[in-house]
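#structure-requests
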Amino acid sequence: MTFRRYLVLGVVAVTAPLGDTLLSVGMKRIGPVSLDHLATLIYAVSTPQILLGIALLICFFASYLASLSWADLTFVLPATSIGNVFVALLARFWLHEQISPGRWLGILLITAGVGFVTQGPSYTEMPKKCPVPGAEASQS
């Protein structure tokens, strides 16, 4: 893998936790929102924290799509799950949430799993031409 590809995976791993954390900050400031009151939901979407969170999640999604175009899902998803560590750290130190020892253990296991995944190939070679069932009938 090239440096650019690692950079894209890094963007995926950082933008999702930051976006989710900003959404959490914004929604805690607004309070409970019900789908029965769409005006409150529309107001929520217009707040700076929510807008920035949405922008970061759009960056995440674009980077995620890019990474899936050159690597297997079984590589990309675990490799980007290092974002769980970032979420826990942001939740603990920015949002002041309590995180149980069991959750920290789970985060540690995820991080170890990411280490195993990065040791394998990022892309499985596919046959050059995959026959599509029924393709012959549509060409006539």
